[in-house]
Amino acid sequence: MDPQVFFVVLCILYSILFFFDRFFKVFNLEFGDHIFRISFQICLHYPYETFLRKTGFSVELMRLKWHTTFFNRSILRLGNSCCRIWLIKSFTIGVMAALFLLPVGIILLFIAIFNSSSSSKIVEDSALIDSIKIEILLPGINLPLEEIGYYITTLLIATAIHELGHALAAVLEDVPVTGFGFHFYFCLPLAYTEISAEHLNALKWFRKLRILCAGIWHNFLFTGTCYLLILSLNFVATPFYNLNRNIIVTQILTQSPLIGKGDKGLYERNVITHINNCKVIDYDTWLRCLYKTLQSRPGYCVSSDFIRNNDESIEVSHHGPDGTFQCCDEKNEKLCCFEYIDNFGNGAPVEIPQYVCLEVRRTLEDAYDYCTSHGTCNIGFCLKPLLRNITTILSFKRKTIDHKGLKDVIYMGHPVDVLRTVRISPFVPKHSFVTPEWADAYVLFLKYNIVFNLGLSLISSVPCFGFDGHHIAGTIIHSFLINRITEKRKREFISLIVSGLGTLFLVLAILKVLWLSVLRYLF
């Protein structure tokens, strides 16, 4: 579903739910008779109130809430099982992990705010380089709206795992758990756990930290689990896919310059093996090979007979408006001006000119091989195309899933156009009933879980109002400064300053992402 359509439909659904909720709750018939009003209350109002009370649902404007005590016994049973000792040890390690992540989260926020090498500087070639960046992720800003389903599902899982950690740790420390639930703020799902604040504050500081840090620890463990599942892909996918051997085209956008035109265009389910003389085995090599075509433009080894028989050079060669040398008719897009690279030792005939005009496809099809980096050829003579700085020649070698060879697809343009309009997958199916989209969806789901669970564990450790880090920092300040600062108000003031600074850093990081998105939109 298109993202805009998704949001419109979601708004309509929320509006309908809110309207009927108000209607069943507060509707009053001013002009109806007494019997009709009583009938309305008996048939609609009271049953609806009973339904909400039994199910735990509540409806507000653009917000849904669900609360339940259904899982209380299961959590209590798990906390008092034979694994109790191991769980307590695990949550003790979780305290250490959370205390380690607290300064790490603050440092990463600093990097996200003050890192000048952000994506605000738009360089076309940089779109081909896949690098690790630290920034706050926001759907529709730096997360693609097309993946909103992954975003909602993963965030739902991450918050549920987080709250499960708090609940399980609370049971182990004999703190009553009164219920669980979910808030849906428009399309943002958040889980929560209700525990007794009175019993929690009565605990000693380390036992209290076990509960406060349990959610962070659970997210961290789940991140590791998803990472191990990704590492096991080579073993799990082997019966169904050829992985990291070649790539397969899964989608070609309608505006793509490579879209299928007879046997000269690219099609879905084409298996790409090479880009020019660069072998493609996965997404990283796909990016690297595309970038390589700009770094070092290929040269082609052709025979002198081919040059003499196919040269279409115009009589008056000249430099074009962009400074490139032109020896072809600019109206004919199939032609390109090539420069002969003379290595002074290949015995080239004297009559081969320095610049020749040849048809690109015929030249690539008749070429013996690619020139070496020094412009030499074992057979034939080296010709290099004269192109603009943003243009290169890409030759895609391809085959079918059944390993039948197909005609090369040749494109003269910018590699970024290919990157933006062609979707590929490293999962080449071994069977006709298997599609690469299944494996891609599985990997993308695991990656979202890694990013969101690790991000939630880091962001929750930051001392920010409403986050676990706020309560963790407050507990540490009250426990370790009690002998030096006896007044509770002063300790609370210090805790307030620490959480205020953490909140400020988080807000600045979010504002930076929004500002950069505005710059991208304008420029």
Automatic annotation (TrEMBL):
Instruction: Respond yes or no to whether keyword Membrane is given for this record.
Output: yes
Membrane topology per the entry is: Multi-pass membrane protein
Keyword Ubl conjugation on entry:
no
State the source organism's domain of life.
Answer: Eukaryota
Compartments where found: Endomembrane system
The catalytic activity of this protein is classed by the Enzyme Commission as 3.4.24.85
The catalysed reaction is: Cleaves several transcription factors that are type-2 transmembrane proteins within membrane-spanning domains. Known substrates include sterol regulatory element-binding protein (SREBP) -1, SREBP-2 and forms of the transcriptional activator ATF6. SREBP-2 is cleaved at the site 477-DRSRILL-|-CVLTFLCLSFNPLTSLLQWGGA-505. The residues Asn-Pro, 11 residues distal to the site of cleavage in the membrane-spanning domain, are important for cleavage by S2P endopeptidase. Replacement of either of these residues does not prevent cleavage, but there is no cleavage if both of these residues are replaced
Q: What keywords are assigned to this protein? A: Membrane, Transmembrane, Transmembrane helix
Gene Ontology BP, a term: regulation of response to endoplasmic reticulum stress
Q: Which GO terms describe its molecular function?
A: metalloendopeptidase activity
- Occurrences of domain Peptidase M50 (ranges): 151-498
**What's any one GO cellular component for it?**
endomembrane system
Please give the chief subcellular localization of this protein.
Answer: membrane
Q: Which residues cross the membrane?
A: 6-24, 91-114, 216-237, 493-515
| Function noted in UniProt | Zinc metalloprotease that mediates intramembrane proteolysis of proteins such as ATF6, ATF6B, SREBF1/SREBP1 and SREBF2/SREBP2. Catalyzes the second step in the proteolytic activation of the sterol regulatory element-binding proteins (SREBPs) SREBF1/SREBP1 and SREBF2/SREBP2: cleaves SREBPs within the first transmembrane segment, thereby releasing the N-terminal segment with a portion of the transmembrane segment attached. Mature N-terminal SREBP fragments shuttle to the nucleus and activate gene transcription.
**Protein name per the record:** Membrane-bound transcription factor site-2 protease
Which organism is this protein's natural source? Glossina austeni (Savannah tsetse fly)
